[in-house]
Amino acid sequence: MKLTTKLLAATAMVSASAASAVELEVTHWWTSGGEAAAVSEFAAAWNATGNTWVDGAIAGSGGTARPIIISRILGGDPMGATQLNHGRQAEELIEAGLMLDLTDVAEAGNWADIVNPSSLLEGCTLDGKIYCVPVNIHSFQWMWLSHQAFADAGLDVPTNWDEFTASADALEAAGKVPLAMGQQGWQQNGAFGVMAVAIAGQDAWLAVNADKNADVAAGPEYAKVFEAAVAARAMAANTNVQDWNQATNMVITGEAGAQIMGDWAQGEFSVAGSVAGTDYTCLPGLGVNEILDTGGDAFYFPVNDDPEITAAQKELAALLISPEVQVSFNLAKGSLPVRGDIDMSTANDCMQKGLEILAAGNVLPSGDQNLSADTTTQIEDLMAEFWSGDMSAADAQTRYAALIASAD
Amino acid sequence: MSLELGKSAYSVEIKQLDLAFGAVKVLQGLDLNINEGEFLVLLGSSGCGKSTLLNCIAGLLEITDGQIWIKGQNVTWAEPSERGIGMVFQSYALYPQMTVKGNLSFGLKNAKLPKDEIEKRVARAAEILQIEPLLNRKPGALSGGQRQRVAIGRALVRDVDVFLFDEPLSNLDAKLRVDLRVELKRLHNQLQNTMIYVTHDQVEAMTLADRIAVMKGGAIMQLGTPDEIYNKPRNLYVADFIGSPSMNFLEGHFEDGRFTVDDMVMPMTGYDFAAPQTANRPAVIGIRPEHVVTGELVRNTPLRYKVDVDLVEPMGSDTLVYAKLGRHIFRIRMDGQAVVQAGETIEIGVDPSRASLFDKATEDRL
Amino acid sequence: MADIAMTGPRGPKPKKRFSRTNIFLYGTLIMISMYYLLPLYVMIVTSLKGMPEIRLGNVFGPPLEITYEPWVKAWSEACTGVNCDGLSRGFWNSVNILIPSVVLSIAIASVNGYALSNWKFKGSEVFFTILILGAFIPYQTMIYPIVIMLREIGLMGDLGGLVLVHSVFGMPILTLLFRNYFTSVPEELFKAARVDGAGFWRIYFQIMLPMALPIFVVAVILQVTGIWNDFLFGVIYTKPATYPMTVQLNNIVNSVQGVKEYNVNMAATLLTGLVPLVIYFLSGKLFVRGIAAGAVKG
Amino acid sequence: MSVVEDRSLQGAAGAKRPIRLFRNPMAKIASIPMILTAMVVFVGGTLWTVVHSFSGSKLLPRLNWVGFDQYERLWETPRWLISISNLALYGICSLILTLTIGFVLAALLDRKIRGEGVFRTIFLYPFALSFVVTGIAWQWILNPDFGLQNLVREWGWESFVFNPLNDPDTVMFGLLIAGIWQGSGLIMCIMLAGLRGIDEDIWKAARVDGIGTVKTYIRIVIPMMRPVFITSLVLIASGIIKLYDLVVAQTNGGPGISSEVPAKYVIEYMFRAQNLGQGFAASTMMLVSVVIILIPWAYLEFGKGMRIMHFLGMIALVLLTLAGFVAVVVAWSFSLSLLLPLVGFLICAGALTAYLRFVKGHIQHG
């Protein structure tokens, strides 16, 4: 049985490559400099197979892009492939039979063995079938520190969160924004999550995010997190930017001391020519708790009536996870590859740090895999309100716990 | 062929016509027969239903019940263009973007007539109406009179038996109106078509009509020749409506062939009763101002009264005198040369045979 | 509100040329004009500056060194994702959306208005009332059902779908516009044409249409500006390849690569606003009539 | 023999009453797009949304009933309440400022000034621009590092702060500046047309009576322009509820969620949060608020004398008043400063009183 499927898949792939060039439209929301460079790697690899990559970049964050992508799939105008965070976002689409089953491709490519951590593939699996290709691992658990900002303030670059908070006043005195924070809910929520893992600890974080334990969310560990967030809010008060990459840019130019942002920020540093270790420092887990959450991007392939397109979709699925493409893409993107069996020696300091943590197995599932989009949106709204206003830590925690209690 | 069709003696027949807009009944059980070649005027004040009736005949309004026959054909539900009618509107309704020629030939083109036939008919209509020099102009460049001529021409080219006119002269100034009225009469004499003409102007009605239908509240009050309408109005409404200045009315009592008002008694000798009158009843007598005799001629009239002149309105050709007769104000039309002054007492004479007598309750002519 | 034609000022006339009232009057008007003109001025000068000059400071200062680079970049080089062909793509998309939408919506609405004023039938007024009330219903309540409807007829994401959506949502105002116009045409003209044997379409094409040219111009202005400026429908019912210019503008301005290039953003903004602005300045009073048409009452 | 007659002879089609539904079939066929739009898209689509707002639909629409759960959650969600109070604040300010500015500009232009055309062109051009363009332009002007704030600081006032787009307390005013800039020209044009529609004799009479200019405007001209004001009011109000593009382009709801508006809440819950039911419930609430505003207006416009409309209008007014006050109370409890909602409260109360008087006056006049 298994053999037959493998053979079938192989045949499908062969016939697809043999077939005439297929145009696949791929939608994604990778529009910042580093991201765009990374997606070009995909496009180049795909075009090299004789097919055509039709780029469907949707600007803004995933929040803007997802509705467009979903309404197109629902609207009967599916794209060839699309980026979506794996996890619960696509569940209903899969249940409605709108996504292509990639199990045969996965088995042919032996994804079960090569994808590390395996939770990534689990995120793509529903009822034993695989519906998406994880392409990278992204972790929010990073803090980026500007060497120049600290030098201007006459300080050493901190090595953990406590040292950083201690230096905030001096940074401010030197006319710097201690913590750059783009004023969008997802960024603020992400930073909060990082602080939660670092301050409340891994167990408390899992209890809240995976088990939806509202008691823990309302408990003393989280109270400390909210206190820290209030402090962080004060440090970020003078950030007059909305987009995450503008905030990153403040770190690059030395306007801001630090930013808590996912590893995709690395792409911005490399585009700007900054060098890890000399121009900036990256601290995983705020330097407190070296751990990575393993969110990431995945590609889904909406069901299409045209067998030629279906074949091409499978071909692209296999291509995205192939070793060479993984290396080139992730180097450009600043993210970690989804397979542990490839050579990433050309990666820079920060990525190496990440790879080590990954190899050591210090991983957490990402928020996306745990909470529904609805709950996430509500929490992001709360965070947006919290970070841009003067809500007290206690109030914020009460409301946060209520949202966790009603999470589905 | 005409036998098969059951050719009627009438050009237009309207049978039991009902028209209602929702709950509002506009026309009710209306019957009207119009003779071949007749010039019929529908006369009434605004809102009496005369234009509505015309629109029903034209097929521009969908009727609620009843039948309309034209030339022996039941056309109740036929399209306007299939009824063999031509229509002229008050506002001319010329197509502004077409030349005069285009206006005249539009209907013929719609009927898919051959080109030379169209040319022929347009030329003929233009000749009759003397609008040949205007053929290539647009309506915007024409005067009101010229426009109405073109509008008539548009009906003319259709070569139909029945012409419908919806207050065609009302938008013209007084002088033009008279000129065009004469022309219309001449046109009717020349063509001998059936014409149905709607107006609120009694002068137009009197001068043009073979018969006049006076309408009120969606019903025909009287249908008759202008002479009948004027001299023998069938009811108070018609009597009051026709004639300017309007008829003098005196309310009183009819008894034994005499009409009594206050202390005056008028024997109705020589009056042409609609039916032999025996019953006594409250009645109204109507006397037209121009039928009141003054001056020397008073002597020849059977009834004479002394009246006090209240007000004098000289109008050039004649003079209107308001005089007190008992407690009533009486309008008297005198010659333009007459010398009368307010405060004077004059003698007037009335001829009962020229008066109209109405039952006060039914308002019908006695 | 039927006619907004300016028949001449009505207010009391100020007495002397340099009276105190006059100075106050013109002073106030000029001050207010500055508020209205400021953004346009700032956009223009910013779009002509280089980034270093912008960073130095004053947005209101005229450019020290005029550069057309931002315009070129906005038009043909600015990136959203890996597509770096600037706004030009959005411009042509907008044109492709605009032309059929304007033609279709006006064609439908003018026939509607004509039917509603001259060929009333049982229920026609009811449908019309619903249509007008529909103009006030928040689009949000209809967005999702329309996604489903477009999917059912296979036009979701297609330009045709957006054209349809624009025609549907343009219908209330345009129908009202045409209905009011055709109602003002003397009814006798219509009757005369019927007596002349013309039917529904012949009267429409040969009598009504040639008379209604001015109102068609008004409708075209109304629709061109409206559709060109649309964002909501563009973002929901199209895909990136067919994004209209407004959506692409928002994308370019909000997809920052490194530093925000304010000059390019402003050039892009001006480019997007250019089409309706040109129409506005060319059409003058007709534009006023066009937009006031939205306010026309029955 | 004429062609028209030929046709009428061919058949007795006119005798048969046609079936009503098939009379003038072309008019009905041509109206199909309108009927479909009205019934399927407007009525059908709206009903569909309302029905599904009682479901627990997530990513895909389903009919798994949850009763009023979505509404309960909606009114417990701070972001929705903030959206509502933002809209109330924006709406009331925008209404008052736009009407005032529109009227004042129109009145200034109506005073026989030179260069009226130039000024009118300047005031109206922003209306040609989209909200996206407007939002981006003002985002740039209000940018604290380069825009107005920076300019004033360069003039020497170092501590000057004007940074509405990054300040949650004042961000709505940043939007308001842009919104009024874009929309007031239209209202000016409508007002100007209204002023021009006022008989010049009114001005002469006022002058003869010795009434001052300002007083004439307030006491005589504005009351005469009541219909113009109502039209403007409805126009502005319906635009306010649709407020979306401007927010997306200028602030995208930020900082935080302090400039969120209901329309954006709907879109984001429908698509981003994948909670269709929640989005439908929110859009239904938007619909309800529009209906509340619309009914009194529809009553004034179309329903004079219709008792049911009068009744509905009164209910709507009561609801409107309640809604206004609830919005203000909500704004009070969520806004960070006290002054703002207090001012809003007064404005709201004033606006409602004015609105009530307006409507009452109309009912009496009607």
Oligomer: heterotetramer
The CATH architecture of chain D is: Orthogonal Bundle
Extended strand count of chain B: 20
Query: What count of helical segments of chain D does DSSP give?
Result: 17
CATH topology of the largest domain in chain B: Rossmann fold
Runs of chain B with pLDDT <50, length 5+? 1-6
Sheet with most strands of chain B:
6 strands, mixed
CA gyration radius of chain D, whole angstroms:
26 Å
Count of strand segments of chain D? 0
Number of domains of chain B: 2
The biggest beta sheet of chain D, please?
none
CATH fold group of chain D: MetI-like fold
CA(first)-CA(last) distance of chain B: 47 Å
CATH top level class name of chain D: Mainly Alpha
Mean pLDDT of chain D, to the nearest integer, reads 79
The CATH superfamily of the largest domain in chain B is known as P-loop containing nucleotide triphosphate hydrolases
Our Rg estimate of chain B from Cα atoms comes to 24 Å
Would you kindly provide a written description of the structure presented here, covering whatever features stand out?
The complex is a heterotetramer of chains A (408), B (366), C (298) and D (366). Chain A is α/β, with parallel strands linked by helices and 408 residues long. Chain A has helices spanning 2-18, 33-48, 62-74, 91-95, 103-109, 111-114, 119-123, 147-152, 161-173, 185-200, 202-209, 214-217, 220-235, 244-252, 265-271, 307-320, 323-333, 349-360, 367-370, 373-388, 393-405; strands at residues 23-28, 52-57, 81-85, 125-126, 129-130, 132-134, 142-146, 177-180, 256-260, 280-284, 292-293, 297-300, 363-364. In chain A, strands 2-1-3-12-6 form a five-stranded mixed sheet, sandwiched between helices. Chain A has a four-stranded mixed sheet with strand order 8-9-7-10. In chain A, strand 1 (23-28), helix 2 and strand 2 form a beta-alpha-beta unit. In chain A, helix 2 packs antiparallel against helix 17 (323-333), helix 10 packs across helix 11 (202-209) and helix 20 (373-388) runs antiparallel to helix 21. Residues 1-19 of chain A have low confidence and may be disordered. With 366 residues, chain B is of the alpha+beta class. Chain B has two domains: 10-239, Rossmann fold (3-Layer(aba) Sandwich); 245-359, OB fold (Dihydrolipoamide Acetyltransferase, E2P) (Beta Barrel). Helices cover 23% and strands 35% of the residues of chain B. With 298 residues, chain C is mainly α. Helices cover 70% and strands 0% of the residues of chain C. Chain C has helices at 20-47, 51-56, 69-76, 88-118, 124-134, 140-152, 159-184, 187-195, 200-211, 213-229, 232-237, 245-254, 262-283, 285-293. Chain D has a single domain, classed as MetI-like (MetI-like fold), CATH 1.10.3720. Chain D is 72% helix and 0% strand. Chain D has helices spanning 3-10, 25-30, 32-52, 69-76, 78-109, 116-124, 131-141, 148-154, 171-196, 200-208, 213-224, 226-241, 245-250, 262-272, 276-301, 307-334, 339-365. The interface between C and D is large, with 102 and 108 residues.
